[in-house]
Amino acid sequence: MVILLAAKLSAFFDPRVLSFCASAYRILKNYLQLNISLLYWILIAPFTGQFFKISPVFRQMVFIGVRAAPMVALTAFSVGVTLAMQAAHSLQQLGAEIYVPDLVMVTLLREMGPVLIAVIVIGRSGSAVAAELGTMKVSEEIEALEVMAINPVQYLVVPRFLAMLVMLPALTIFGNYIGVFGGWAVCTFALDFNTAGYVLRALQSADTWDLYSGMIKSAVFAWIVITIACNAGLHVEGGAEGVGQATTASVVQALLAMLVTNAVLTGIFFFAV
Amino acid sequence: MKRNFSDYIVAVSVILISLVLLAALTIALSGYRLKKPTRTLQINYEDVTGIKVHSELRYAGAPAGRVIAMRHLTAKERESSPNKRDAVRVTVSLDDAIPPLPADVVATLSSDTLLAPKFVALSAGTPGGNTLTNNAAIEGHPAYGLDQITAAAGPLLDNLNITVANLKNDLGQFTPKLGPLADSLKIDVDNLQNVVKNLDGVSKDADTVLGTADTFISATDKQLQEQLKQLHVILLNLKVVTTHAKALVETLAEKPNRLIFSGKPAKLTPESEILKSSKPLPAKKP
Question: How far is A22 from chain B (nearest CA, A)?
Fold first, then answer.
């Protein structure tokens, strides 16, 4: 039936389009399977006595989160400084530079913090996870685990997933503080703000929902980034070249998915909440 | 095992620090205060646009505290309020250094500039009188910013619209009456033109009369001047005659014997000297 349908479709479409569609379908199917399997091993399996090990989770937390902290700090500081300078440039023309802390705080909490820190984590940790799992796949370590009756999702994906789910929001909180600090540096040294005035304006401008909407985004991004990276790594084909391609594909897919999800979540928060 | 232990410590530390940072930010953004404010003031407003929790409180223009809570008044509270239009109660905390507030302080909403954030402003009040108790409720007055001016202009514009409509209506009624008025005005203008023409003739006649009068006055003036000259000569002669007459009278009165027995007559004052003098002179020179 499927073969017949494919034969009929091939008469109307370019073979390259069909190949792309088939590839996208396969990736999506694998991705959904991975997510269902992941949810099973996290939510259902522990109640059946099949606990995942906790130590790999902490190891992955250090690898995914703690070691990314310097890059996140540098990025967040740069973003905070840039935001403050750009805002000051425009707001000074209106005599409204007092709103620079507001803009820095709200932009960081709602958008720039979660998005840019997710970008950093995708580039650093997501690609590393995809490459690591891909290498394990091509060196047949994953088949070896299956031979030993160890589920690769339980053993390899769940710790990374949980680590990412905890560490990306944690990095986002950390990045928000550093970004606001960057804005403070510009406001204090270039705009003659005093520290108390800056902090009060920044706190006055945002509310708790701004913070938690950013945290929700961050958690969703964590899910998307790690599942895409793991999916790409677990389905590598073709040796070392395949690992490289899978790593690149995971980064591209994760970035696109993250940005589209950001737009969707912003729309939901904007219109529904 | 050693590596696992260090991973535990680092990961748990990072998670705990993140939780602490998140809690701190949540507390800061929510406006929750660990230390309860010792002095508060409640202000009822009709409208608190631009004011939020954390907004600044200024007493006589200087920072004096923060807005710590805002809530809508219940229907009962609105009914019992002196101003039925009050809708929001703003609770502000006062810094401990602020002196007791006089009872006549006026609470308004203000901002430094049009774009600047709004704050609750308390006037200085009058010292020496009653003071407000802790957590007292006072009446707030609305801000007089651009929004309020615009809002106030709304009814004015509505009234203007009505006025314009009425004016249009009145104009419609007035226009038909303008025809007869314009006709009568035309007649008046024609009459006025005739009057002006007549006035022109009168003006010309007056010019002629004045010219004649001028000629008459000129001729009369010349005659008068000549007669005055003749009179002057007469007066001079009279002056000489009267002076000499004085000598004659004196001679007749004082020395009659010389007329009888003759003698050398006294020398008279010359005529030229009499004419030059502006004072009476003796008739005879001594």
Answer: 41
